[in-house]
Design goal:
seven-stranded mixed beta sheet, 13 helices, Rossmann fold, about 400 residues, alpha/beta, 12 strands
Length: about 400
Amino acid sequence: MMRFTAIFFLTILAISNINCTAQMASSKQSTSNKGRIITGADQTEKYLSYLKGKRIGLVANQSSLIGKKSSVDSLVSLGINIVKVFGPEHGFRGNASNGAVVSDEKDLKTGIPIISLYGKNEKPTKAQLADIDLMVFDIQDVGCRYYTNINTLEYVMEACAENNKELLILDRPNPNAYVVDGPVMTDDKFKSVIGIHYTPMTHGMTIGEFAQYLNGEGYLKEQCKLKIIKVANYDHNMPYELPINPSPNLNTQQAVMLFPSLCMFEGTAINEGRGTYMPFTILGAPALKGKYSFSYKPVGIPGMSERPNHKDSVCYGLDLRNYDISNLRKSRQLNLKWLIELYKAYPDKAHFFGQERANTGVSPFDLRIGTDQLRKQIIAGVSEAEIRKSWEPGLSKFKAIRTKYLLYPD
């Protein structure tokens, strides 16, 4: 009896020690995570049970990570039945050039079919969704109207709504969420593959927030059923360094932060660093020789930019690789000074902005900006202050609408 009692108490003590150790480990993990931004994907405890037993369609690319591992590989290893992966612009692996058509294929590692949403169809078809119980969207965005991930989001939501499929979004921070700026696109003639939403150039929302905006503002004929796994310990003013390049030409944090301002130069005579390994951190053109000392030569780079503006010609202009991006955070605005400066310095002003397309009467620059007003203002020499004033009341109206859909503090 005494022996049994001793064994009993020793067992209780062992269990107590195990529980204490587990609690200490849990407490230690909780402390280490306190204040640290944790993406929706990394919070597997919040959604794995919801995925179990379902046939999953996953919208993903190279930025879709759980820890440092591909979401596809991670979820498959955790016993999740992924039946299809849908890839956006640049492809599932993120190695296709901007605007390049991407074909369907199979993932070599898992054998899972990969359906391109930047090839034969931008929107998942009824047949492609037939054997899927739940769609999951996990892609890093950078917060600009002309960054096409939000187009893919709308098409996926529309397809899910039409086919009675729920969409689970594993939310991620927007590195440019601190800035809501630029003219609001209001005219359908400026819609294109680089802009289909009536937002400013930078919208200041995460993918989860933008999905709620699409549902709430009537972009879809019928609302998509959404479930969102929020980012933990996050607000829009927090700096966030991306763990992986979101696309081939955003290959540094500097490029990610400068992209909203420098992408305005696409559709102009200025090369914005495409065709180099410094994209969206430098600006130049051959015609600026003698005006600037900094120079570089764009070339064709497979998987990045095969046919960059001014390919194989020496360009002269601005080197912004060491520009203090905290200036952008402080101003909470797009930088217009570089656009105004380079237009004034360019000798052949008639050819600075891209020519209007014969079939639409709209220039490539105007498509990116979402209006022809900015181009006309730059040509007329309108001051930056007056340009910004002309964005009202549209910009303020959008900001008020946006607040209805926010998941995180501004």
